[in-house]
Amino acid sequence: MSEVMPFANKLILFFQKVWEESSGECLLQIQLLVALRNFVVALGYQSPICYDILLPILQKGIDIDSPDELNLLEDSMLLWEATLSHAPSMVPQLLAYFPCVVKIMERSFDHLQIAVSITEDYIILGGSEFLSIHASSVAQILDLVVGNVNDRGLLSTLPVIDILIQCFPLEVPQLISSTLQADNVSSIQRKTYGLALSIILTLRLPQVLNKLDQILSVCTTVILGGNDDLTEESSGDNITSSGSLSKGTIPSKEFRRRQLKFSDPINQMSLDASVRENLQTCATLHGESFNKAIGCMHPSAFSQLKQALKMA
């Protein structure tokens, strides 16, 4: 940063002049976006000094209705992520840009990974102000991803859930419970989010008890829903109970891919065991208050919970 700062003002003027003269020159604009990203990284927490030129350029690049959207979007998103990563604090203009993530995801999942990183940045940088304004957009992103991408795509969104749990554990159940009810969500995806929810039970926060009913209700639904997806897939894969090929079957790429999928650690994990263990931790942490919270559960919900967790 010390090497760049003496020339920062001149570089800002240069970037502004080149951008103004680059209308219709997509290749030049792409190079400028790359240079701006490097400039922002070099400035670090001093990067707000270039916001006057940076933010209008960024806004144009992430506008999916812009004529140049297809050419500029990827580099604009990389610039967006760098801007958030090196921002000392959230500013209103950046805060207002977040719904563009939803629009981009609605268009396609081509930029899923960078969109996830941008969402993480917003949660960390924007804090409670961000979530109070854009909670519905975050939930919409999760709804878009779950059920519409493969398991690898789903796993790429788990850092968002992880950060939400760390920063806003009490808001997470409401954000993801509707997502889990979607018809096109696979059992593995439900299980992944159910495991994420169960972690909240281990937090040393008295407010967790206020969400206990909701957390357990979602986890119960996931457990009792079973693993139909895996059963259906495995039945058509010529995989015997020992995991080997049927006689005369040639191992294919698809067969190996599914073997890898079934060997995924999450398939070996037991959600009901995880919920039981974390529920016991919750009881230890909160004592009598936990007992009161459990006692307030609806009898039918508690009965389903006992069935799901195989409790006596």
UniProtKB/TrEMBL annotation:
In terms of superkingdom, the source organism counts as Eukaryota
Q: Which residues form the Importin-7/11-like TPR repeats domain?
A: 31-176, 182-309
InterPro entries per the record?
Answer: ARM-type_fold, TPR_IPO7/11-like
| One Pfam family, short name | TPR_IPO11
Please give the PANTHER family that the UniProt record associates with this protein: IMPORTIN-11 (PTHR10997:SF7), IMPORTIN-7, 8, 11 (PTHR10997)
Q: What is the designated name of this protein? A: Importin-7/11-like TPR repeats domain-containing protein
